[in-house]
Design brief:
- By secondary structure, the protein is of the alpha+beta class.
- It is about 30% helix and about 15% strand.
- The chain has ten helices and 13 strands.
- Strand 1 and strand 2 form a beta hairpin.
- Helix 2 packs antiparallel against helix 10.
- The longest helix has 20 residues.
- The N and C termini lie far apart (about 50 Å).
Length: about 375
């Protein structure tokens, strides 16, 4: 009996040494860091009790709330470590999120890139992607990854506005992959590629792959359909209608590197690829886009902040008028913001600009609440 115990003890010690060296793959192997000991929302988000916050924390959060009152913000939710640190306005209100849709599509690409259904290096010619009046031969050399990084060199009219197409160079003048222009043709064609290669509609895939496992509280599949002017382009837009609290769930999934309660909904490597800088702000066109000071990955905007900034390494989805999903890994925080549009039927309303949104975010992120 004593010899048996001694052998067992020696075996355990040997395995422990191997585990330190990274060579032991027993059932003692730990789960991914993104899933380990994480807090996730259930049917609804859990709030951090105000009673557990210091006076200094509450004072700074109150200052952020006062500042939001000066903006045209509809709602804002800040989640830290999986619980709601700060909430402002009707976070359950559903409205269009405009170009934040593009970042959502990029998230959806992940598992299909990983399983080989979507090859980012296939060209438009390979996929028989064309458009009204025909694409130029050089335009048809653009790859799927060029669409996701707004570097296709295709300056065909898009089915919807809200981009920098008015500043586009002449068609055929830019080699695919060489020139950044925020261009809805790219983003809409990326939606067509997704549907063609997966054989699924964007909205059905979103409902099955993300909305259901994330238990989005306010998503309505029946409300969604592709839209735009089909006389300009056969590649239509894919608007999304989301609540602020559901936008926060999407952001939290990104913060957790695609892992939700132990289920890898988006490959962690794809999260890293999406948020890897493909274009620094200095390489963007036109000049007003470069002056914003944001880089670009695969359909996500990347903040360019100094290393000592709380927002260093942060990235965001951004829709016109002030729709934002900001992920702040340095603070283990997600901030979702909504500017509801239309207002009383009017679509031509004021914006909550990035600088104003980020000022509010800095007030929250800098609050001494941990």
């Amino acid at each position: 009996m004593q010899r048996t115990l001694m052998r067992a003890l020696a075996l355990c010690c040997a395995c422990a040494a191997l585990m330190v060296a990274g060579a032991c793959t027993s059932t003692l192997q730990r789960p991914p860091a993104a899933a380990e000991a994480a807090t996730y929302p259930a049917a609804s988000w859990q709030a951090i009790p105000a009673s557990s916050q210091s006076d200094a924390c509450r004072r700074d959060l109150d200052a952020a709330r006062d500042y939001l009152h000066t903006l045209d913000s509809t709602a804002l939710m800040a989640v830290q470590d999986g619980r709601v640190l700060f909430s402002y306005g009707p976070v359950q209100t559903v409205s269009i999120v405009f170009s934040a849709r593009k970042s959502v599509l990029s998230m959806m690409y992940g598992k299909y890139v990983a399983n080989g259904t979507i090859d980012l290096d296939r060209s438009l010619a390979d996929l028989s992607i064309d458009d009204i009046g025909g694409l130029l031969p050089v335009e048809r050399q653009a790859r799927v990854r060029d669409l996701l990084s707004a570097r296709s060199g295709v300056y065909h009219a898009a089915a919807n506005g809200g981009d920098d197409a008015s500043a586009a160079p002449a068609r055929g003048s830019q080699k695919p992959g060489s020139y950044f222009l925020y261009n809805n043709w790219d983003f809409n064609a990326a939606g067509t590629v997704f549907e063609q290669l997966t054989g699924r509609s964007i909205y059905r895939a979103f409902a099955d792959d993300l909305a259901t496992p994330l238990a989005l509280e306010d998503f309505d599949l029946a409300r969604h359909k592709r839209s735009g002017n089909a006389r300009l382009s056969q590649h239509l837009a894919y608007p999304f209608f989301l609540s602020t609290r559901d936008m926060a769930r999407l952001g939290y999934l990104m913060l957790k590197e695609g892992n939700w309660r132990g289920q890898q909904l988006i490959p962690a490597d794809w999260v890293r690829q999406m948020t890897q800088q493909r274009t620094p702000s200095t390489d963007m066109h036109p000049p007003h886009t470069a002056r914003r000071g944001f880089g670009y990955g695969y359909l996500w905007w990347l903040l360019e902040e100094p290393p000592d900034s709380p927002l260093s390494g942060a990235y965001m989805a951004w829709g016109v008028h002030g729709q934002y999903i900001l992920v702040i890994p340095k603070r283990q925080m997600v901030v979702a913001h909504k500017r509801e549009v239309p207002v009383a039927g009017n679509w031509n309303v004021s914006w909550v600009a990035p600088k104003d949104f980020l000022r509010a975010v800095r007030m929250i992120a800098d609050a001494p609440c941990r």
